[in-house]
Amino acid sequence: PRSAATMGEAPEPSSQAPLAVLSKVELRVSCKHLLDRDTLNKSDPCVLLLMQSQGQWVEVDRSEVIKSNLNPVFAKIFTVDYYFEEVQKLRFEVYDSHGHAGVGTHDDDFLGGMECTVGQIVAQKRVTKPLFLKYGKFAGKSTITVISEEISGNNGYVELAFRAKKLDDKDLFSKSDPFLEIYRIDDDRSEQLVYRTEVVKNNLSPIWEPFKVSLNSLCSCEEKRKLRCVVWDYDSRGKHDFIGEFFTTFEEMQKAMGENKVQWECMNPKYKIKKRNYKNSGVVVLLDLKIHRVYSFLDYIMGGCQIHFTVAIDFTASNGDPRNSCSLHYINPYQPNEYLKALVAVGEICQDYDSDKKFSALGFGARIPPKYEVSHDFAINFNPDNDECEGIQGVVESYQSCLPKIQLYGPTNVAPIISKVARVAADEERTKEASQYFILLILTDGVVTDMADTREAIVRASYLPMSIIIVGVGNADFTDMQILDGDDGVLRSPRGEPVLRDIVQFVPFREFKNASPTALAKCVLAEVPKQVVEYYSYKAFPPRCPQPDTPDSSLSSPQ
């Protein structure tokens, strides 16, 4: 969890304290002189990126595997968040991969590692260091180079779809297996690999899968910057055959918007000199180009996106009898309990972004009237047709009046409530507009019982316009709850499917017991703007037209 200083970017200087703007940095990796671990052919390298989190190395991402190559240039672009105020330690580990078994992390597959900080790479722009094996031994002459580029705020991304026609045939007994590489030519004439397509087997007129790249990566946001595009015939031993190349610019590519297509002759300079009747080695066609602008959180809010707030309260027996002053649900006329403090602190900020100021309020883990059966998703106002309360005060009143009517029970199942909010969010998603985003605040005194179902529900919800905040109330051991907060690695469903976006923030209330309510709100809401932007960017939904009554921007900068 991050401090709220990194939330959203203000559109213009305001009277409020300046925000520490979160930067994203793109890292590109290449290696030279890797050790050869394979007897018959060369190593098949893959790079793992690890980040230090609370003293532990956690894998963040990994590159593709490059077959039979001791000097690989990886197409994978690693994206990391950069915080100026923190030392962020990185570790790159290179392994020799073995086919379907994936990347083994055995010592005999380890080709070397290197450690540095994000700050070092950002400051130097390009870092080349030797690779080390275990116990500080050099991995021969192996080196790794990491190049960084900051993604500027005005940066969008572009979706490109290429095909080729009548490419030269380089294979004796079958047709070529072509793939396309795009390089950006920098001011110092060096070339940066922007993208490498997949290989289309045995086809001289391949259609490659469409792909997305940031404008920063493609052309440093300069439309006239020269790009070099190369078509190769893939060779499993790493000795790819050159088919041809052409040069273009992003400016020229943009002619492919709409119904138009742009095409280039793919040329082999050697053939051009040697062969009298040489025309080309095929034609490459840009079938489609779409530009997506990247918007900020405030762009969406000012476009009228409403934040819909749902609170879910734990009424399991472990909270203690509400009539007893030791209970976490005890209503003290002079002092609100921890449930109320957390609810008010977070809800007061969210209500600024919801024009109707109506909040859904649900309970779980109690036996409820009239039949006193256990429910894991009941409306605390006991109106099954409309679980909304008027403002934060309405939620507080419904909470206080429902306590005497219910019987605290169990178990602590939260998957039903996550799924209930997800169903509403799924209906919203179908509008294909950035009109409503859902925040679910779960207040609980213990570790959830239905952990497998909860993980599954969170993975499903990560594809929808919603975020989940869990506040742990009381003094239980919440270690297992940290798993749900993806900060220590990627949360996965029981079947191993990863979340699309990290949407869960978990905070134990006791860490904020003596702090002001704003400190709790800052901490739990810190990630929300990023989550909103990530969701709508992934969906490529632009902000709607600005509405006349724009809410104030306290969520983007809780002071």
UniProtKB/TrEMBL annotation:
GO molecular function: calcium-dependent phospholipid binding
Every C2 domain range: 3-131, 138-265
Matches recorded under InterPro entries: C2_dom (IPR000008), C2_domain_sf (IPR035892), C2B_Copine (IPR037768), Copine (IPR045052), Copine_C (IPR010734), VWF_A (IPR002035), vWFA_dom_sf (IPR036465)
Residue ranges occupied by any VWFA domain in the UniProt entry: 308-507
Keywords tagged on the record: Repeat
A Pfam family that the UniProt record links to this protein: Copine
The organism's place on the tree of life at top rank: Eukaryota
Family classification: Belongs to the copine family.
Designated name of the protein: CPNE7 protein
Species for this entry: Anseranas semipalmata
